[in-house]
Amino acid sequence: MTKLEFNTMVTKQSDSLKLYALHFTHDDEDANDLVQDTVLKAITYYEKFKEGTNLKGWLYTIMKNTFINNYRRFVKISSFVTKSDEISSANLSYSATGNNGENKFVMDDIKHAMANLSDDYYVPFTMYFEGYKYHEIADHLDIPIGTVKTRIHVARKTLKKSLKPYQLRSKSYAYVAAAI
């Protein structure tokens, strides 16, 4: 059986897979996602399917295992988030040791470092930081895209240099380096 024939057979099963997925998820969109994951895995692992075996049963097994794995992953991630009104003593101790006053000093230093940038570097950098793409910045400022990339790079380098003391301090200031 060729891969094209196999793909055709798998996609023909999508309606029955959708009904089986609804049995697990009880939600139309989640069922569509589960079917898509199942079909993708089936096509990816095409060479593991043995011709002459029950394709529908093989697909159902992939779907069931995918659902179980996704559920376990969800439960594991959910266990990290505290959902109760009571805060454990460990979390209380952690929140009590942090001081927001330090954050104000850090932000003041970042603002001061950015204020020292010339407009040629400040404007492209802040636009990029706000989520604009290179070509959007280039169009807005009416400059070549290479110039935009260079100015952002130079601004980033200048900010890192002026905020170097935070890079040398404890890991709690790692977000300063990450922001730049």
**Average pLDDT for all residues:** 82
Reported for the largest beta sheet, the result is: none
Report, as a whole number of angstroms, the end-to-end distance. Answer: 53 Å
Kindly state the number of beta strands: 0
For the structure shown, list the relevant keywords.
mainly alpha, 11 helices, elongated, 76% helix, 180 residues
What topology emerges from the helices and strands here?
Layout: H1 3-12, H2 14-25, H3 28-44, H4 55-78, H5 89-97, H6 100-115, H7 119-129, H8 134-141, H9 145-162, H10 164-168, H11 174-179
Helix pairs in contact: 2-3, 2-4, 3-4, 7-9, 8-9
Folded structure, characterized:
This is RNA polymerase sigma factor. 76% of the residues lie in helices and 0% in strands. It has helices at 3-12, 14-25, 28-44, 55-78, 89-97, 100-115, 119-129, 134-141, 145-162, 164-168, 174-179. α2 (14-25) packs across α3 (28-44) and α2 (14-25) runs parallel beside α4.
Summarize the structure.
InterPro entries: RNA_pol_sigma-70-like, RNA_pol_sigma-70_dom, RNA_pol_sigma70_r2, RNA_pol_sigma70_r4_t2, RNA_pol_sigma_r2, RNA_pol_sigma_r3/r4-like, WH-like_DNA-bd_sf. This is RNA polymerase sigma factor. With 180 residues, the protein is mainly α.
